[in-house]
Protein backbone atom coordinates (compact mmCIF):
# COMPACT_ATOMS: atom_id res chain seq x y z
CA UNK A 1 0.00 0.00 0.00
CA UNK A 2 1.33 3.38 -0.84
CA UNK A 3 0.11 6.77 0.09
CA UNK A 4 1.07 9.92 -1.66
CA UNK A 5 -0.40 13.07 -3.01
CA UNK A 6 1.73 14.43 -5.76
CA UNK A 7 -0.68 15.44 -8.47
CA UNK A 8 0.67 16.98 -11.61
CA UNK A 9 -1.49 19.50 -13.34
CA UNK A 10 -4.61 18.50 -11.54
CA UNK A 11 -7.69 19.81 -13.25
CA UNK A 12 -10.32 21.43 -11.13
CA UNK A 13 -12.79 21.79 -13.88
CA UNK A 14 -16.21 20.66 -13.16
CA UNK A 15 -19.52 20.29 -14.86
CA UNK A 16 -22.51 18.64 -13.34
CA UNK A 17 -25.34 17.65 -15.61
CA UNK A 18 -28.58 15.83 -15.36
CA UNK A 19 -31.06 15.42 -18.14
CA UNK A 20 -32.49 18.83 -17.41
CA UNK A 21 -29.90 20.69 -15.44
CA UNK A 22 -26.44 21.75 -16.44
CA UNK A 23 -24.44 23.60 -13.84
CA UNK A 24 -20.89 24.77 -14.23
CA UNK A 25 -19.56 24.72 -10.72
CA UNK A 26 -15.95 25.69 -10.54
CA UNK A 27 -13.61 26.64 -13.32
CA UNK A 28 -10.18 27.08 -11.96
CA UNK A 29 -7.08 24.93 -11.76
CA UNK A 30 -4.55 24.15 -9.10
CA UNK A 31 -1.28 22.32 -8.99
CA UNK A 32 0.15 20.55 -5.96
CA UNK A 33 3.49 18.91 -5.68
CA UNK A 34 4.34 16.81 -2.64
CA UNK A 35 7.44 14.90 -1.69
CA UNK A 36 6.82 11.20 -1.23
CA UNK A 37 9.34 11.04 1.62
CA UNK A 38 7.01 13.25 3.67
CA UNK A 39 4.54 10.39 3.88
CA UNK A 40 4.39 7.09 5.73
CA UNK A 41 4.66 4.15 3.38
CA UNK A 42 3.87 0.52 3.89
CA UNK A 43 4.40 -2.38 1.56
CA UNK A 44 3.02 -5.80 2.19
CA UNK A 45 4.19 -8.98 0.55
CA UNK A 46 1.40 -11.27 -0.43
CA UNK A 47 2.77 -14.83 -0.28
CA UNK A 48 -0.02 -16.03 -2.55
CA UNK A 49 1.41 -14.22 -5.55
CA UNK A 50 3.95 -17.05 -5.96
CA UNK A 51 5.39 -17.00 -9.42
CA UNK A 52 2.31 -16.57 -11.51
CA UNK A 53 2.05 -12.90 -12.34
CA UNK A 54 -1.21 -13.42 -14.19
CA UNK A 55 -2.80 -14.56 -10.94
CA UNK A 56 -4.11 -11.22 -9.81
CA UNK A 57 -3.44 -12.27 -6.23
CA UNK A 58 -1.37 -9.24 -5.33
CA UNK A 59 -4.47 -7.10 -5.51
CA UNK A 60 -5.09 -4.67 -2.76
CA UNK A 61 -8.86 -4.38 -2.50
CA UNK A 62 -9.92 -2.08 0.33
CA UNK A 63 -8.71 -0.25 3.38
CA UNK A 64 -10.47 1.32 6.33
CA UNK A 65 -9.53 2.90 9.65
CA UNK A 66 -10.76 2.49 13.20
CA UNK A 67 -11.26 5.30 15.69
CA UNK A 68 -8.02 4.17 17.35
CA UNK A 69 -6.13 5.08 14.16
CA UNK A 70 -5.39 1.50 13.17
CA UNK A 71 -5.56 0.82 9.45
CA UNK A 72 -7.14 -2.35 8.07
CA UNK A 73 -6.28 -3.63 4.63
CA UNK A 74 -8.38 -6.16 2.74
CA UNK A 75 -6.33 -7.91 0.06
CA UNK A 76 -6.66 -11.09 -1.92
CA UNK A 77 -6.62 -14.00 0.58
CA UNK A 78 -5.30 -11.81 3.41
CA UNK A 79 -6.40 -9.19 5.91
CA UNK A 80 -3.87 -6.91 7.56
CA UNK A 81 -3.99 -4.66 10.57
CA UNK A 82 -1.46 -1.80 10.62
CA UNK A 83 -0.90 0.74 13.34
CA UNK A 84 -1.11 4.43 12.64
CA UNK A 85 2.56 4.46 11.60
CA UNK A 86 1.56 1.88 8.98
CA UNK A 87 3.53 -0.92 10.62
CA UNK A 88 1.87 -4.30 10.23
CA UNK A 89 0.76 -5.58 13.60
CA UNK A 90 -1.39 -8.49 12.51
CA UNK A 91 -2.32 -10.52 9.48
CA UNK A 92 -4.78 -13.31 8.87
CA UNK A 93 -5.49 -15.52 5.90
CA UNK A 94 -9.07 -15.45 4.63
CA UNK A 95 -8.60 -18.88 3.04
CA UNK A 96 -9.75 -21.93 4.92
CA UNK A 97 -9.81 -25.07 2.84
CA UNK A 98 -11.21 -27.06 5.79
CA UNK A 99 -14.53 -25.27 5.60
CA UNK A 100 -17.44 -27.44 4.54
CA UNK A 101 -18.43 -24.78 1.95
CA UNK A 102 -14.96 -24.68 0.44
CA UNK A 103 -15.54 -25.95 -3.08
CA UNK A 104 -12.10 -25.40 -4.62
CA UNK A 105 -8.81 -24.77 -2.79
CA UNK A 106 -8.79 -21.06 -2.07
CA UNK A 107 -5.43 -20.36 -3.70
CA UNK A 108 -6.92 -21.50 -7.01
CA UNK A 109 -9.95 -19.20 -6.88
CA UNK A 110 -8.56 -16.48 -4.59
CA UNK A 111 -10.61 -14.80 -1.95
CA UNK A 112 -10.98 -11.16 -2.99
CA UNK A 113 -11.89 -8.80 -0.20
CA UNK A 114 -15.23 -7.32 -1.25
CA UNK A 115 -16.29 -5.44 1.88
CA UNK A 116 -14.26 -4.04 4.78
CA UNK A 117 -16.33 -1.84 7.08
CA UNK A 118 -15.88 -0.88 10.72
CA UNK A 119 -19.17 -1.78 12.42
CA UNK A 120 -19.76 1.38 14.39
CA UNK A 121 -22.91 -0.09 15.97
CA UNK A 122 -20.90 -2.55 18.04
CA UNK A 123 -17.71 -2.12 20.02
CA UNK A 124 -14.51 -3.57 18.56
CA UNK A 125 -16.10 -4.89 15.37
CA UNK A 126 -15.05 -5.12 11.75
CA UNK A 127 -17.19 -6.58 8.95
CA UNK A 128 -15.19 -8.34 6.26
CA UNK A 129 -16.64 -10.09 3.23
CA UNK A 130 -14.93 -12.15 0.61
CA UNK A 131 -15.88 -13.53 -2.75
CA UNK A 132 -15.63 -17.22 -1.87
CA UNK A 133 -17.68 -19.42 0.50
CA UNK A 134 -20.90 -18.18 -1.15
CA UNK A 135 -20.14 -14.55 -0.37
CA UNK A 136 -20.32 -15.01 3.40
CA UNK A 137 -19.05 -12.20 5.66
CA UNK A 138 -17.42 -12.29 9.04
CA UNK A 139 -17.75 -10.07 12.05
CA UNK A 140 -14.21 -9.87 13.44
CA UNK A 141 -12.67 -8.11 16.39
CA UNK A 142 -10.93 -4.88 15.41
CA UNK A 143 -8.29 -5.52 18.03
CA UNK A 144 -7.72 -9.12 16.98
CA UNK A 145 -8.77 -9.71 13.38
CA UNK A 146 -8.13 -13.46 13.77
CA UNK A 147 -11.10 -13.63 16.08
CA UNK A 148 -14.32 -14.30 14.12
CA UNK A 149 -17.34 -13.55 16.31
CA UNK A 150 -20.09 -14.26 13.80
CA UNK A 151 -20.69 -15.26 10.18
CA UNK A 152 -23.34 -13.79 7.94
CA UNK A 153 -26.04 -14.80 5.55
CA UNK A 154 -24.54 -15.66 2.11
CA UNK A 155 -24.42 -13.60 -1.11
CA UNK A 156 -23.44 -10.30 0.46
CA UNK A 157 -20.55 -9.10 -1.69
CA UNK A 158 -19.86 -9.71 -5.36
CA UNK A 159 -17.44 -12.32 -6.57
CA UNK A 160 -13.97 -11.99 -8.06
CA UNK A 161 -14.00 -8.99 -10.39
CA UNK A 162 -17.44 -7.71 -9.38
CA UNK A 163 -16.95 -4.27 -7.90
CA UNK A 164 -18.66 -3.90 -4.53
CA UNK A 165 -19.13 -0.73 -2.51
CA UNK A 166 -20.65 -0.58 0.94
CA UNK A 167 -21.24 1.58 3.97
CA UNK A 168 -23.21 1.64 7.20
CA UNK A 169 -25.89 4.33 7.27
CA UNK A 170 -29.38 4.85 8.69
CA UNK A 171 -32.16 2.72 7.21
CA UNK A 172 -35.87 2.26 7.75
CA UNK A 173 -36.90 3.68 11.11
CA UNK A 174 -33.45 5.20 11.63
CA UNK A 175 -31.80 1.83 12.38
CA UNK A 176 -28.25 1.49 11.14
CA UNK A 177 -28.00 -0.86 8.16
CA UNK A 178 -25.28 -1.87 5.74
CA UNK A 179 -25.89 -0.64 2.19
CA UNK A 180 -24.18 -2.70 -0.50
CA UNK A 181 -24.02 -2.16 -4.27
CA UNK A 182 -22.60 -4.92 -6.44
CA UNK A 183 -21.73 -5.08 -10.13
CA UNK A 184 -23.41 -7.83 -12.10
CA UNK A 185 -20.94 -10.22 -13.73
CA UNK A 186 -23.08 -13.20 -14.64
CA UNK A 187 -21.45 -15.30 -11.92
CA UNK A 188 -22.64 -13.58 -8.78
CA UNK A 189 -26.25 -14.66 -9.02
CA UNK A 190 -28.22 -16.28 -6.23
CA UNK A 191 -29.94 -19.62 -6.78
CA UNK A 192 -33.24 -18.80 -8.49
CA UNK A 193 -31.65 -16.24 -10.81
CA UNK A 194 -31.97 -13.26 -8.49
CA UNK A 195 -29.27 -10.67 -8.45
CA UNK A 196 -29.24 -7.96 -5.80
CA UNK A 197 -27.74 -4.86 -7.41
CA UNK A 198 -28.34 -2.63 -4.38
CA UNK A 199 -29.44 -3.87 -1.01
CA UNK A 200 -29.40 -2.90 2.60
CA UNK A 201 -28.64 -5.54 5.15
CA UNK A 202 -29.65 -5.89 8.75
CA UNK A 203 -26.67 -5.64 11.07
CA UNK A 204 -28.59 -6.08 14.31
CA UNK A 205 -31.18 -8.73 13.50
CA UNK A 206 -30.66 -12.38 12.81
CA UNK A 207 -29.53 -13.67 10.32
CA UNK A 208 -26.64 -11.23 10.29
CA UNK A 209 -26.53 -9.25 6.99
CA UNK A 210 -29.72 -10.70 5.59
CA UNK A 211 -31.93 -8.47 3.42
CA UNK A 212 -35.65 -8.98 2.88
CA UNK A 213 -36.84 -8.33 -0.67
CA UNK A 214 -38.15 -4.87 0.21
CA UNK A 215 -34.58 -3.87 1.04
CA UNK A 216 -33.19 -4.85 -2.35
CA UNK A 217 -33.13 -3.60 -5.90
CA UNK A 218 -33.19 -6.83 -7.85
CA UNK A 219 -32.29 -7.70 -11.37
CA UNK A 220 -34.01 -10.77 -12.79
CA UNK A 221 -31.17 -12.26 -14.67
CA UNK A 222 -31.58 -13.08 -18.38
CA UNK A 223 -34.13 -10.34 -18.93
CA UNK A 224 -32.04 -7.45 -17.70
CA UNK A 225 -28.30 -7.62 -18.10
CA UNK A 226 -27.14 -4.17 -17.25
CA UNK A 227 -23.67 -3.65 -15.89
CA UNK A 228 -23.26 -0.85 -13.36
CA UNK A 229 -19.69 -0.51 -12.16
CA UNK A 230 -19.87 0.99 -8.66
CA UNK A 231 -16.85 2.97 -7.46
CA UNK A 232 -17.97 4.60 -4.21
CA UNK A 233 -20.81 5.00 -1.73
CA UNK A 234 -21.56 7.78 0.72
CA UNK A 235 -24.28 8.95 3.07
CA UNK A 236 -25.68 12.46 3.20
CA UNK A 237 -28.80 13.84 4.86
CA UNK A 238 -31.30 11.02 4.44
CA UNK A 239 -29.97 9.45 1.26
CA UNK A 240 -27.36 6.87 0.39
CA UNK A 241 -25.45 7.73 -2.78
CA UNK A 242 -23.57 5.46 -5.16
CA UNK A 243 -21.08 6.73 -7.72
CA UNK A 244 -21.05 4.49 -10.77
CA UNK A 245 -19.89 4.01 -14.33
CA UNK A 246 -22.56 2.57 -16.61
CA UNK A 247 -24.36 2.82 -19.94
CA UNK A 248 -26.62 5.83 -20.10
CA UNK A 249 -29.70 3.59 -20.11
CA UNK A 250 -30.78 0.12 -21.21
CA UNK A 251 -30.90 1.00 -24.91
CA UNK A 252 -27.88 3.25 -25.02
CA UNK A 253 -24.36 2.44 -26.22
CA UNK A 254 -22.95 5.51 -24.45
CA UNK A 255 -20.91 5.12 -21.25
CA UNK A 256 -21.48 7.78 -18.63
CA UNK A 257 -20.70 8.36 -14.97
CA UNK A 258 -23.62 8.76 -12.62
CA UNK A 259 -24.63 9.29 -9.05
CA UNK A 260 -27.53 7.10 -7.99
CA UNK A 261 -29.30 7.51 -4.70
CA UNK A 262 -31.84 5.71 -2.54
CA UNK A 263 -33.95 7.20 0.21
CA UNK A 264 -32.96 5.90 3.65
CA UNK A 265 -36.23 6.33 5.50
CA UNK A 266 -38.50 4.91 2.81
CA UNK A 267 -40.33 1.62 3.34
CA UNK A 268 -38.26 0.09 0.52
CA UNK A 269 -35.58 1.12 -1.99
CA UNK A 270 -37.99 1.96 -4.82
CA UNK A 271 -37.29 5.69 -4.64
CA UNK A 272 -34.15 5.28 -6.74
CA UNK A 273 -33.02 8.28 -8.77
CA UNK A 274 -29.89 9.21 -10.68
CA UNK A 275 -28.05 12.12 -12.26
CA UNK A 276 -25.17 12.16 -14.74
CA UNK A 277 -21.75 13.43 -13.69
CA UNK A 278 -19.57 15.15 -16.23
CA UNK A 279 -15.92 16.08 -15.97
CA UNK A 280 -14.38 18.13 -18.78
CA UNK A 281 -10.92 19.54 -19.32
CA UNK A 282 -10.20 23.19 -20.07
CA UNK A 283 -9.66 22.20 -23.72
CA UNK A 284 -13.15 20.71 -23.81
CA UNK A 285 -11.96 17.09 -23.66
CA UNK A 286 -14.44 14.81 -21.93
CA UNK A 287 -13.41 12.53 -19.10
CA UNK A 288 -16.26 10.04 -19.22
CA UNK A 289 -15.17 7.21 -16.97
CA UNK A 290 -15.30 7.67 -13.22
CA UNK A 291 -12.67 5.50 -11.52
CA UNK A 292 -12.77 6.48 -7.85
CA UNK A 293 -14.53 8.96 -5.60
CA UNK A 294 -14.38 10.31 -2.09
CA UNK A 295 -16.94 12.37 -0.18
CA UNK A 296 -15.87 14.78 2.56
CA UNK A 297 -15.27 18.37 3.57
CA UNK A 298 -13.39 20.72 1.23
CA UNK A 299 -10.84 21.56 3.95
CA UNK A 300 -9.18 24.96 4.42
CA UNK A 301 -6.70 24.93 1.50
CA UNK A 302 -9.03 23.76 -1.23
CA UNK A 303 -11.84 25.89 0.17
CA UNK A 304 -9.62 28.99 0.02
CA UNK A 305 -8.52 28.33 -3.54
CA UNK A 306 -12.04 27.63 -4.76
CA UNK A 307 -13.98 30.14 -2.70
CA UNK A 308 -15.87 27.59 -0.59
CA UNK A 309 -16.37 27.17 3.16
CA UNK A 310 -13.84 24.77 4.69
CA UNK A 311 -16.61 22.56 6.06
CA UNK A 312 -18.56 22.50 2.81
CA UNK A 313 -19.14 18.91 1.71
CA UNK A 314 -17.77 18.05 -1.69
CA UNK A 315 -17.42 14.97 -3.85
CA UNK A 316 -13.93 14.36 -5.23
CA UNK A 317 -14.01 12.09 -8.26
CA UNK A 318 -11.24 10.85 -10.52
CA UNK A 319 -12.15 10.25 -14.14
CA UNK A 320 -10.29 8.99 -17.17
CA UNK A 321 -10.85 9.52 -20.84
CA UNK A 322 -11.89 6.48 -22.82
CA UNK A 323 -10.52 4.78 -25.90
CA UNK A 324 -12.33 6.02 -29.02
CA UNK A 325 -14.76 8.89 -29.29
CA UNK A 326 -16.00 10.25 -25.93
CA UNK A 327 -18.22 7.78 -24.11
CA UNK A 328 -18.12 5.10 -26.81
CA UNK A 329 -16.18 2.59 -24.71
CA UNK A 330 -15.42 1.85 -21.08
CA UNK A 331 -11.74 1.22 -21.79
CA UNK A 332 -9.75 3.85 -19.89
CA UNK A 333 -6.74 5.53 -21.45
CA UNK A 334 -3.82 7.28 -19.84
CA UNK A 335 -5.44 10.68 -19.26
CA UNK A 336 -7.13 11.41 -15.98
CA UNK A 337 -8.66 14.35 -14.20
CA UNK A 338 -9.90 15.08 -10.70
CA UNK A 339 -13.22 16.89 -10.55
CA UNK A 340 -14.73 18.35 -7.40
CA UNK A 341 -18.50 18.77 -7.01
CA UNK A 342 -20.21 20.77 -4.32
CA UNK A 343 -22.84 18.72 -2.54
CA UNK A 344 -25.26 21.64 -2.73
CA UNK A 345 -25.06 21.48 -6.53
CA UNK A 346 -25.49 17.71 -6.55
CA UNK A 347 -28.59 18.09 -4.37
CA UNK A 348 -29.94 20.76 -6.70
CA UNK A 349 -29.44 18.46 -9.69
CA UNK A 350 -31.48 15.72 -7.99
CA UNK A 351 -34.41 18.06 -7.44
C1 LIG B 1 3.73 1.00 15.23
O1 LIG B 1 4.47 -0.19 15.38
C2 LIG B 1 5.88 -0.01 15.32
C3 LIG B 1 6.52 -1.39 15.34
O2 LIG B 1 5.97 -2.19 16.34
C4 LIG B 1 6.29 0.86 16.52
O3 LIG B 1 7.69 1.09 16.48
C5 LIG B 1 5.56 2.20 16.42
O4 LIG B 1 5.86 2.99 17.56
C6 LIG B 1 4.07 1.95 16.36
N1 LIG B 1 3.42 3.22 16.14
C7 LIG B 1 2.39 3.61 16.89
C8 LIG B 1 1.81 4.93 16.56
O5 LIG B 1 1.92 2.92 17.78
C1 LIG C 1 2.09 -12.38 8.75
O1 LIG C 1 2.79 -11.99 9.92
C2 LIG C 1 3.88 -12.85 10.21
C3 LIG C 1 4.45 -12.45 11.57
O2 LIG C 1 4.72 -11.08 11.60
C4 LIG C 1 4.92 -12.76 9.08
O3 LIG C 1 6.00 -13.62 9.33
C5 LIG C 1 4.25 -13.15 7.77
O4 LIG C 1 5.14 -12.96 6.68
C6 LIG C 1 3.01 -12.29 7.54
N1 LIG C 1 2.30 -12.78 6.37
C7 LIG C 1 1.83 -11.96 5.44
C8 LIG C 1 1.06 -12.60 4.36
O5 LIG C 1 2.00 -10.75 5.46
C1 LIG D 1 -11.45 -23.56 9.24
O1 LIG D 1 -12.71 -24.19 9.13
C2 LIG D 1 -12.90 -25.27 10.04
C3 LIG D 1 -14.21 -25.96 9.69
O2 LIG D 1 -15.29 -25.04 9.66
C4 LIG D 1 -12.88 -24.68 11.47
O3 LIG D 1 -13.04 -25.74 12.40
C5 LIG D 1 -11.55 -23.98 11.71
O4 LIG D 1 -11.56 -23.35 12.97
C6 LIG D 1 -11.29 -22.94 10.63
N1 LIG D 1 -9.96 -22.39 10.78
C7 LIG D 1 -9.73 -21.09 10.91
C8 LIG D 1 -8.31 -20.72 11.03
O5 LIG D 1 -10.62 -20.26 10.91
From TrEMBL:
GO terms for cellular component: plasma membrane; semaphorin receptor complex. GO terms for biological process: negative regulation of cell adhesion; positive regulation of axonogenesis; regulation of cell migration; regulation of cell shape. InterPro entries: Plexin, Semap_dom, Semap_dom_sf, WD40/YVTN_repeat-like_dom_sf. Keywords: Membrane, Transmembrane, Transmembrane helix. It comes from Patiria miniata. SUPFAM superfamilies: Sema domain (SSF101912). PROSITE patterns: SEMA. GO terms for molecular function: semaphorin receptor activity. The chain crosses the membrane at residues 9-27. This is Sema domain-containing protein.
